[in-house]
Amino acid sequence: MKCISSFFLLLVATQASVLAQFRFSPEKPQVGQTVSFTYTPQATPLATDSTLEGRFVYYGAPTAMHLSRPTTAALMRQGNVFVGQVLIPLKGVTGAMLAFRNSKQPQRIDLNKGQLYVIPVYDATGQTVPHAIAGQSSVFTRSHFLYELGSRPDQNRVVSLYAQEFQANPTLYPMYWSDYLASQIKQKKPGYGPKVKLGIETYLASRPALTAAELTAGAQLYENMGDFPKANALRERMKSLDPAGSLVQRDRATAVRNETDWTRKKLAYQAYQKEFPNASYLPPLTVMMTDGYFKNNDIRGLVAFVEQQPVAHTDVLMLNTMAFQLADERRSLPEAEQLIKRAMMIQKTQPKSGNGDDRQRQLMNTYARVLEQQGKYAEAYTAYQDVINPNAIEDSDPRLNERYFLCALQANHAADAQAVTESAIRVGKATPRLKTVFRDWYAKQSGNTVAKADTYLTELEADLRADQTDELRDILINEPAPAFSMTDLQGRTISSASLRGKVIVLDFWATWCGPCIASFPAMKQAQSKFENDSKVQFLFVNTREGGPLQRVHNFMNRQPYGSYGFTVPIDASQRVSRAYKVQGIPTKVVIDPKGRVRYRQIGYSGDPETTVNELTLVVEMLKDEK
């Protein structure tokens, strides 16, 4: 008896404390009424704050919890208290829950120790309406309100509120049973497992006719406790109850996805589409099938398939990628044109978004490429003009700039594309091929020569090269170059002493090193720039090979490497690579004519143009250094 009295006194004291901080009028609000409330921040985390606002959500029965969208309640300060109002709607609402925070520093907040401040709704007799208590738990379990405020639900409180509701309104249990048991799982009180399982079994056994939703909820509860056999058993019952339901749809979709035979996969997809035209699993299956047609090289079948699909089931960017790949590979070009036209049509039907213009340019770029590869140069050139942004050349793709000028050349619009191309060259957004083609075209213009064209190209790149040179000077090093002597694949002795006075480029590599081999085309370009310069020597030092020398011979004798003209010294003992501080391969090292290491770069970026330009500039700088 003494224990009960102490608990009652504590409860009254707690309620009195809350009421001292939060009061509302009328004391027992009903639907349709405006509730005025007073908030006293003293003794709360906001005691020293002066700019406050309320944040509240309405709540109701579980089916009405879509109402729980957070709303701001304006507060007016009156002395040491703040006042505000909340309107109780006529339908669906059984209460409101509030928190208070600093409007300028939202992280400063009063959550009433995680319970929030509650305005329950009453009926005409002065009793709380059904769901006025359990609906508070629904705010914690079915909404993100508390998480938005930076907190988490107290599961003890959640379970307690459900229990209070069931005591007052036992008939509401079927609406909350799964939420109530899920809260007990999260509460994790000792012995909760058997208790919850008994709760599931008792509830399901008490129902005269189980619904798919009840079976799904039961299966999810078992799964949350790790009892997968019982969860699966309920799901099997659900399939029998609802043979066209989501579980059956999911299993059938998985079967379509896992089918490895392409012919059977198409038939399975067609059957699924016919049987479950509105299934949520259908759009991703459609995307998978779209990819399947492409990977199986059934491009005509792909076009026919795509044109039959609803707009919502089509991945625009996937079609764009496929069409561009077909265009680049010069195959199925009419079909590629159909694919990109379909993608462009769908894009126009979609809502405008922040990246809408970028996506439209992507599609138009592919369309232009497809037209160009079919020899429709006039149409392609018009399309490219919608892709090229003369005011954003610094952010452009060098490959796009190349395609644009080549197409303009074919369409007899090279002069119109000249300004954009010159800008691309100035800011380093031109490929080597574009610069070569532009130089050749410029040399053929009235009054020009090849020499004039070379000079003009140099002038266009002058500022860029100056900036790049300044940047490179900041990363140049200055270390003694260790002496070396190695034998190359032809049996010749290659020594640092014999190369004194030259700029030496050492490229350390091995046949098993993917990045090393990937960088070879770029290194060939760089070497070609100095093939007639007796003051520059490129050496491709094979190191860390870990295998027979014949493997290197065989590798270099293959095409295209046999035509590269590389001098390949062998560093079998890794003595040279260690002396030159090679920590990984590929590593490029450049030695100046005075025998000093001035540049060291490990790895390969994958950008051949950057590699060629940087090495070329380094070599030219060191050649010209006094």
TrEMBL record:
Keywords: Signal. InterPro entries: Redoxin, Thioredoxin-like_sf, Thioredoxin_domain, Thioredoxin_ResA/DsbE_sf, TPR-like_helical_dom_sf. Residues 1-20 form the signal peptide. Residues 475-624 form the Thioredoxin domain. It holds the Pfam family Redoxin. Gene3D superfamilies: Glutaredoxin, Tetratricopeptide repeat domain. The keyword Signal applies. PROSITE patterns: THIOREDOXIN_2. This is TlpA family protein disulfide reductase. It comes from Spirosoma liriopis. The lineage of its organism: Bacteria, Pseudomonadati, Bacteroidota, Cytophagia, Cytophagales.
